[in-house]
Design a protein that fits this description.
Elements (H helix, E strand, L loop, with lengths): L6 H22 L7 H6 L11 H4 L4 H6 L4 H20 L4 H25 L14 H28 L2 H18 L4 H21 L1 H28 L6 H6 L1
Length: 248
């Protein structure tokens, strides 16, 4: 490490970069402004974000679902995921067992439908058949491939982009996910991530000013305590005259 560069200086540069926009925002906002939208647009967002949350989530139908633009669809998706998790995790259903039960129910319904006309002395009616379109599987495969490539591209951009703050945040998130994975199985981790994806973005979009302010205040207090701790720790380290020893 070059001379004059310490861990304290690196941390100070990171925090100053994050809090630079916030200090500029406070100077530019007038006390006579009454439009909350204009004031909100001047706030420097978390980690330098300038685009809205909806745009960061892709800006399509998936972003509408995650941000609860259509409450019925979002509630249905979240409720379906909860039912699946309860069946497999709480009731300990096996996927093959559940699939066989579903097929049996459908076959019994079709059998009763096809033979009810003869028992009731009515004209036979066509039994509805369930046919899944081929395009459905193509769309599912394309969607999964697009999301996987987007995630891989994002991780590689973070690794090669040179943004140390974003890189450390992603590494910390993956490390936390790995720790959580040791506490529960894959299905529970997947369900927790699904719940977080359907709650955290909409809550942040609604209270983003308060969240950004709280994070910046926390970073400022953390920097202050870090300086005190680092100063007290370094003051206890004895310093010798190394130049004199080298000259001898």
């Amino acid at each position: 490490m070059p001379e004059g560069i310490t861990a304290e200086n690196i941390f100070e540069n990171i925090v100053e970069t994050l809090s630079e926009g916030k200090s500029e925002k406070k100077k530019s906002v007038s006390f006579f402004e009454e439009k909350p939208n204009s004031v909100s647009s001047q706030i420097n967002r978390l980690f330098g974000r300038q685009k809205p949350v909806h745009h960061l989530l892709g800006g399509g139908k998936s972003a509408d679902v995650l941000l609860w633009r259509n409450k019925k669809i979002s509630a249905s998706v979240l409720g379906g995921a909860t039912v699946v998790w309860v069946l497999f995790e709480w009731l300990n259903y096996n996927f093959i067992t559940l699939l066989c039960f579903a097929v049996v129910v459908v076959m019994v319904a079709q059998f009763v439908w096809s033979n009810a006309s003869g028992l009731l002395n009515r004209s036979p009616s066509d039994v509805p058949r369930l046919v899944l379109p081929d395009q459905l599987f193509v769309n599912v495969a394309v969607t999964i491939g697009e999301q996987a490539n987007r995630a891989l591209g994002y991780l590689q951009d973070v690794a090669c982009g040179g943004n140390i703050k974003q890189f450390l945040m992603v590494v910390a998130s993956l490390w936390a996910a790995a720790i959580i994975g040791t506490w529960c199985n894959f299905l529970t981790v997947l369900y927790i991530g699904f719940i977080a994806a359907h709650t955290l973005p909409v809550l942040y979009e609604r209270y983003e000013d308060q969240v950004d302010g709280f994070v910046y205040d926390f970073l400022g207090q953390f920097q202050h305590h870090y300086k005190k701790l680092d100063k007290g720790f370094r003051s206890k380290i004895p310093r010798g005259n190394f130049r004199g020893k080298k000259s001898e």
